[in-house]
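2024-03-11 09:14:02 DEBUG pipeline.ingest accepted 1 chain
2024-03-11 09:14:02 DEBUG pipeline.ingest length=264
2024-03-11 09:14:03 DEBUG pipeline.predict start
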Amino acid sequence: MMRTDGYLLDHRQTEAAEHYSAFAALFDPTTFRHLETLGAGSGWRCWEVGAGNVSVVSWLAKKVGPTGRVVVTDADPSRLAPAPRPPVQALAHDLCRQEPPGEDFDLVHARLALVPVAGRERALRTLVKALRPGGRLLVEDADPALQPLLCPDEHGPEQQLANRLRQGFRRLLTDRGTDLPCGRTLPRLLREAGLTRVQADAYFPLASPACAALESVTIRQIREQLVTAGHATDQDIDRHLTNVASGTLDLTTAPMISAWGRKA
């Protein structure tokens, strides 16, 4: 995928595995529910965009069985498993510069795969092109601008600090060209790409232990950038991480918007 000016949550950092685990704990149940509703099953040909969602690939592989196929792609070959087992096939693929790895997929799924991509509309057209007639596309993106607070109940200094650091995180994203109001645009973009029966919903977790785990690893990943940009001091970050670990903050994340439709 084409990155913007440096993807903020660099998957090459040592915290990347922890980050993916927290995302899976938060959002896998919603993703699996949608995939189940869309009918994913035995013999299906599926394309999973982005190698970070290992849990989704494993779930799909069990669903499609030995007669199905799951292609998982990423622009960075280092993120692909060295020797995936059938029915999984791993391919290096640039979503914006290459043709899709086939045009007969029953299902294409992309979760948080379009946020760091320049030219999201073009990328969506590539996903749609990969579908067979009647095939299903499920795209899931966060929308930080819909819920900008880390602590919606800002009743004390700990919550105020948390929200200030979240504002700094959003400014870092904006500075790198990330399109913050991205999730809310998905239904319109899917219709414009030619899909029918387009629907969407949003998942908004609050006060989950996985929210705290995600916040902790995110802050550790972007600590240097926050301090360098003047959004926080090392003391601020140490205090915030202690507050998060205490379990006394009711944390949330940006809503995850899931949008789906069918190719005519």
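2024-03-11 09:14:41 DEBUG pipeline.report The first strand starts at residue 45 and ends at 49.
2024-03-11 09:14:41 DEBUG pipeline.predict end
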